[in-house]
């Protein structure tokens, strides 16, 4: 069982930056691929990025490529999402997720956090 807790959301102006964190419980964090997803009001949840267990592989959605960076610190059981050049369309609840496996994954996650709100004003 893995429990995930996100933090770092907030209100920011367009062009600004935020850094989200997701802390995982459990002793096997380093064996999990991690993902970030987001859900805007009235829309389905969508994939943002994923990182492999050792950080060696990362995949980004086209909408955030070049602006967002995912990283992880296995010693701290934490995954990060650095978001730069934020746009109003990035406004959403952001969720981190975990699943066991050696690769990167855009779906099929087993564990989810409660989410953190990111609001980008124009």
Provide a descriptive summary of the structure in words:
By secondary structure, this protein is an all-beta fold. Helix content is 0%, strand content 50%. The chain has no helices and eleven strands. Strands 2, 4, 5, 6, 9, 10 and 11 form a seven-stranded mixed β-sheet that branches. A four-stranded antiparallel β-sheet has the order 1-3-8-7, with no helix packed on it. The radius of gyration is 13 Å and the shape is globular. The termini are far apart. The model has no long low-confidence stretch (mean pLDDT 96).
Task: Put the structure in a nutshell.
The protein has no helices and eleven strands. It has strands spanning 4-7, 10-13, 18-24, 32-39, 46-51, 58-60, 68-73, 78-83, 92-100, 111-112, 116-121.
The residue fraction in helices comes out at under 10%
Largest sheet data = 7 strands, mixed
Percentage of residues in DSSP E strands: over 45%
Structure summary, number of beta strands:
11
Structural class: mainly beta
Cα radius of gyration in angstroms: 13 Å
Number of helices: 0
State the shape.
Answer: globular
Average predicted confidence as pLDDT: 96
Write the H/E string, N to C: EEEEEEEEEEE
Amino-to-carboxy terminus distance: 40 Å
Uncertain runs with pLDDT below 50, 5 residues or more? none
